[in-house]
Automatic annotation (TrEMBL), chain A:
UniProt keyword terms in alphabetical order: Cytoplasm, Exosome, Nucleus, Phosphoprotein, RNA-binding, rRNA processing
GO BP term, example: rRNA processing
Compartments it resides in: Cytoplasm; Nucleus, Nucleolus
Origin species: Kryptolebias marmoratus (Mangrove killifish)
Name recorded for this polypeptide: Exosome complex component CSL4
Complexes and interactors: Component of the RNA exosome core complex (Exo-9), composed of EXOSC1, EXOSC2, EXOSC3, EXOSC4, EXOSC5, EXOSC6, EXOSC7, EXOSC8 and EXOSC9; within the complex interacts with EXOSC6. The catalytically inactive RNA exosome core complex (Exo-9) associates with the catalytic subunit EXOSC10/RRP6. Exo-9 may associate with DIS3 to form the nucleolar exosome complex, or DIS3L to form the cytoplasmic exosome complex. Exo-9 is formed by a hexameric base ring consisting of the heterodimers EXOSC4-EXOSC9, EXOSC5-EXOSC8 and EXOSC6-EXOSC7, and a cap ring consisting of EXOSC1, EXOSC2 and EXOSC3.
Chief subcellular location: cytoplasm
Family classification: Belongs to the CSL4 family.
Transmembrane regions: none
GO cellular component assignments: cytoplasm; nuclear exosome (RNase complex); nucleolus
InterPro entries: Csl4 (IPR039771), EXOSC1_C (IPR019495), Exosome_cplx_N_dom (IPR025721), NA-bd_OB-fold (IPR012340), S1_domain (IPR003029)
Lineage start: Eukaryota, Metazoa, Chordata, Craniata, Vertebrata
Protein's UniProt keywords contain Cytoplasm: yes
Any one GO molecular-function label of the UniProt entry: RNA binding
Matches recorded under PANTHER family: 3'-5' EXORIBONUCLEASE CSL4-RELATED (PTHR12686), EXOSOME COMPLEX COMPONENT CSL4 (PTHR12686:SF8)
From TrEMBL, chain B:
GO cellular component, one term: nucleolus
Localization per record: Cytoplasm; Nucleus, Nucleolus
Example GO biological process: U5 snRNA 3'-end processing
CDD domains the UniProt entry points to: RNase_PH_RRP42 (cd11367)
GO molecular-function terms, A-Z: mRNA 3'-UTR AU-rich region binding
Protein's recorded name: Exosome component 7
Tagged with keyword Disulfide bond: no
Keyword Nucleotide-binding: no
Quaternary structure and interacting proteins, as annotated: Component of the RNA exosome core complex (Exo-9), composed of EXOSC1, EXOSC2, EXOSC3, EXOSC4, EXOSC5, EXOSC6, EXOSC7, EXOSC8 and EXOSC9; within the complex interacts with EXOSC2 and EXOSC4. The catalytically inactive RNA exosome core complex (Exo-9) associates with the catalytic subunit EXOSC10/RRP6. Exo-9 may associate with DIS3 to form the nucleolar exosome complex, or DIS3L to form the cytoplasmic exosome complex. Exo-9 is formed by a hexameric base ring consisting of the heterodimers EXOSC4-EXOSC9, EXOSC5-EXOSC8 and EXOSC6-EXOSC7, and a cap ring consisting of EXOSC1, EXOSC2 and EXOSC3.
InterPro entries reported for this sequence: ExoRNase_PH_dom1, ExoRNase_PH_dom2, ExoRNase_PH_dom2_sf, Exosome_comp_Rrp42_subfam, PNPase/RNase_PH_dom_sf, Ribosomal_Su5_D2-typ_SF
Gene3D superfamilies cross-referenced by the UniProt entry: GHMP Kinase, N-terminal domain
Main location: cytoplasm
TrEMBL record, chain C:
GO annotation terms (biological process): nuclear mRNA surveillance; poly(A)-dependent snoRNA 3'-end processing; rRNA catabolic process; rRNA processing; U4 snRNA 3'-end processing
Pfam name, any one: RNase_PH
Organism, scientific name: Kryptolebias marmoratus
Keywords: Cytoplasm, Exosome, Nucleus, RNA-binding, rRNA processing
Name of the protein in question: Exosome complex component MTR3
Lineage: Eukaryota, Metazoa, Chordata, Craniata, Vertebrata
């Protein structure tokens, strides 16, 4: 009678371990779904507000964006915030839940971060991550730029003290979340990445003169840095 | 807690087995592993027991001391639980590593015994408001191979069964002061009625079913577990959800029902076994820790 | 230290006078309506007052009153984990700390976290953890701390609700809100959301606390003690779930109110 179930079963059993839906929730079929009074929510504000666990719509109606999650073919809210539907030329709109304050952003692989060098040694520079993209972080996150990640070419000739100094503001990209011993691993091996603000020994803010040198406006002394060619979109007025 | 790494393939294998009521070690879903119980293993205690369940080994020693009754209940003695997770069980417990698990286990034990019928605490009273017996129940984890709760509760029941509290006589002297006199005869002692002492049954939800006495591998596949302590009559003295997942209400009800069934069935053979061991008396061949 | 032998010294240990005063009054009748006019054997929870965002320095916070049980919760993080192990790399870590203020109960407690506080913290952790999308916060930890200001019963249940509200206020991604409800069983009848007096006076029965995810229909926390039959336990769990559903619209409203107060809707772009 149910021969197809035998085939489907392994897939079903594997599902709880797939990365987007962690094992932590009992996989028993839901017997009763608590329907949230969404009509009530809509009446109160022109823009819909929701709380975590609210069922927003079916998977067929929208594409899940940020602040939502998918379960049993329905999209639910994961945040308390405003429901935002965006149509980006696709067939279905992208649904996401946004909050007035920026979401609790964490440095992720591939993200461009702004950081400050806290200490250097011949093998790596330690930095403190201040911004992810243009969002300031509320808490302290530490990162490491290893010698071999400073630039893309002639990696073996890199010397950390000719690239960074403590106090420099550096644009970098997250390459890995690191393991237990290390912090976030960052790289500056792109033309657009590297030191953006540095102060000379005299204390003045230096002016970049080449991709590897900066000059002090007071003493005219030149210092070595891995200078970033700052892209216009990162420049803020 | 000792943990094991289980691969995706292993997980699927374990899950499929449990679905078909056949576990990796050949048991059904509601079967315990081989359990060994020995009482009176440490001579310095008033009562002791060692329980091995699979590779989990637990040693319980009970010491009776005279103390002051709690002001709220002047005519009752009380129990004190302490669970020590020794570094023998796993190196992670070294230093303060086992402390967290130890408090968790002992707090659960307080909860399990937090009712009037588990143990007759009035029998532990010597003179109301002044003196009572305090039973220090010390649990030592020797090896961890899953299902600590169940092994621990069986060991405690066995140790309480084995406990011999010396009889005391209270005589008042001329000035109205009371004097406590311990009986000289080592065989003149008080025994505890352990009939109502509950046993803990831990049920692990694995896939769509639940298993009793999960091994570490099975535990790694489980979403969450429910532990319930059951008396021989089937009364539940404590229920708790443990582990990092959540459970469907229906599966909670199913698990409570199964736990009650398994727990009830556990008591009769356990008591029979304890009585049988007791009846052997001094002739008993002691196995000890190497058995 | 030289001691004054002529002085009559007090006893070494002292007990609170509360223990000796008005003991008989503490025994409440086990039938008829309850002291505060609520009904027995019904999911009759106390009206609650909840407010989000009372601690400005925390990422999220909530204050809750149910009857005269008062508690507050703060959420900090996600921030970098101090103690690291293998699982933190994929998943965030949730830490919970629940304390009863020394003056919260009739008998003074101590400031040092005792085993009761630790037990409550653990239960709180186990109840909240299934609801938080921890895999969205690798390498970081989220700290939840609950302070009970006045203990008038059902502290754990309300702490769970309050903490989930604070988490939502902090903008931590969650699968669902977590609501807590507790009851006290006493010889054939039960009282939902018991007060402190009801909690301490139910002698033969037991207590039950359930943490529930209303939208996912999942039980994330369960704890009971005292003696109960299996049927009573099952019925008790059902009643607690019912109590949670009664709380649900209130909590939703409170969150939505907090959101609306915090900011106008973002422009549609």
């Amino acid at each position: 009678m149910r021969s197809s179930v035998m085939v489907e079963e392994p897939v079903l059993l594997l599902l709880p371990f797939s990365s987007d839906w962690p094992i932590r929730i009992d996989s028993s079929p839901c017997l009763s779904q608590w329907e949230v009074g969404s009509a009530l929510l809509e009446n109160m504000s022109p823009m819909k507000l929701c709380v975590p666990g609210d069922k927003l719509c079916s998977e067929e109606d929208c594409i899940p964006g940020t602040g939502v999650y998918l379960r049993h073919g329905y999209i639910y809210s994961a945040l308390a915030g405003y429901v935002l539907k965006k149509n980006e030329g696709e067939k279905r709109p992208v649904i996401s839940v946004v909050r007035e304050t920026e979401a609790q952003l964490l440095p992720d692989v591939g993200a461009i971060v702004t950081c400050k060098v806290t200490s250097i040694n011949p093998r790596f520079a330690k930095v403190q991550i201040l911004y992810v993209g243009s969002t300031p972080l509320k808490d302290r996150f530490r990162g490491t730029i290893r010698k071999e990640d400073v630039r893309a070419t002639e990696k073996d000739k890199v010397e950390i003290y000719k690239s960074f100094r403590p106090g420099d503001i550096v644009l970098a990209k997250v390459i890995s979340l690191g393991d237990i011993q290390s912090n976030y691993l960052l790289t500056t091996a792109e033309n657009e990445l590297g030191v953006v603000v540095a102060h000379s020994e005299a204390g003045a803010q230096m002016i970049p003169i080449s991709w590897c040198e900066m000059q002090c406006p007071c003493t005219q002394a030149k210092e070595f840095r891995k200078v970033a060619r700052v892209q216009p979109e990162y420049l803020q007025a | 807690m000792a943990t094991v790494q289980v691969s995706e393939a292993e997980k699927v294998y374990i899950l499929h087995g449990i679905r078909d009521d056949l576990r990796v070690d050949g048991r059904g879903c509601e079967d315990y592993r081989h359990m060994e119980i020995e009482t009176d293993v440490v001579s310095n205690t008033d009562g002791s027991a060692k329980v091995t369940l699979g590779h989990t080994a637990v040693l319980v020693g009970i010491k009776a001391e005279i103390g002051k009754p709690r002001p709220m209940v002047p005519n009752e003695g009380y129990l004190e639980f302490f669970v020590d997770c020794s570094a023998n069980a796993t190196p992670e417990f070294e230093g303060r590593g086992g402390e967290e698990l130890g408090t968790e286990l002992s707090n659960t034990l307080y909860r399990v015994f937090n009712n009037k019928h588990s143990l007759d605490l009035r029998s532990l009273c010597i003179s109301p408001g002044e003196h009572c017996w305090v039973l220090y129940v010390d649990v030592l984890l020797l090896q961890c191979d899953g299902n600590l709760y169940d092994a621990m509760s069986v060991a405690i029941k066995a140790a309480l069964f084995n406990t011999k509290i010396p009889r005391v006589n209270i005589s008042s002297d001329d000035e109205g002061g009371k004097e406590i006199e311990l009986s000289d005869d080592p065989f003149d002692c008080m025994r505890l009625d352990v009939e109502n002492v509950p046993c803990i049954v831990t049920l692990c939800k694995v896939g769509h079913r639940h298993v009793v006495d999960a091994t570490l591998q099975e535990k790694a596949c489980s979403v969450a577990s429910l532990l319930i302590s059951v008396t021989h009559k089937g009364a539940v003295t404590c229920a708790r959800k443990v582990g990092g997942g959540s459970l469907d209400p229906e599966s909670v009800f199913e698990m409570t029902e199964a736990g009650k069934r398994v727990g009830k069935a556990l008591h009769a053979p356990l008591m029979a076994l304890l009585r049988q061991e007791e009846s052997l008396g001094m002739k008993r061949h002691k196995v000890g820790f190497l058995g | 230290m030289p001691t004054d032998t002529k002085r009559v010294r007090g006893p070494e240990v002292s007990q609170s006078p509360v223990l000796f005063g008005c003991r008989p009054a503490a025994v409440l009748p086990s039938h008829g309506p309850r002291a505060d006019g609520r009904q027995r054997d019904q999911a009759d929870v106390r009206p609650v007052f909840v407010r989000c965002g009372l601690v400005s320095q925390a990422n999220g916070s909530a204050y809750m009153e149910a009857g005269s049980t008062k508690l507050m919760c703060c959420v900090y993080g996600p921030r970098e984990t101090e103690r690291k192990d293998e699982t933190d790399m994929k998943c965030g870590r949730l830490t919970t700390d629940m304390r009863l203020a020394p003056f919260s109960c009739p008998v003074r407690g101590s400031w040092i976290q005792g085993t009761q506080d630790k037990d409550l913290s653990l239960m709180l952790y186990e109840s909240l953890q299934p609801a938080v999308c921890l895999q969205k916060y690798p390498r970081s930890q989220i700290e939840v701390s609950v302070m009970v200001l006045e203990n008038s019963g059902s502290v754990l249940a309300h702490a769970v609700t309050c903490a989930s509200l604070a988490l939502a206020d902090a903008g931590i991604e969650m699968y669902d809100l977590v609501l807590g409800c507790s009851l006290c069983q006493d010889a054939g009848s039960y009282v939902v959301d018991p007060t402190y007096a009801e909690e301490t006076s139910c002698g033969s029965g037991g207590g039950l606390t359930v943490a529930f995810l209303p939208s996912l229909n999942q039980i994330s926390g369960l704890q009971s003690d005292g003696e109960m039959s299996e049927e009573t336990l099952t019925a008790g769990v059902r009643t607690c779930i019912e109590g949670c559903y009664k709380l649900y619209p209130v909590i939703q409203q409170a969150l939505i109110q907090a959101l609306r107060r915090a900011a106008p809707p973002p422009s549609e772009s």
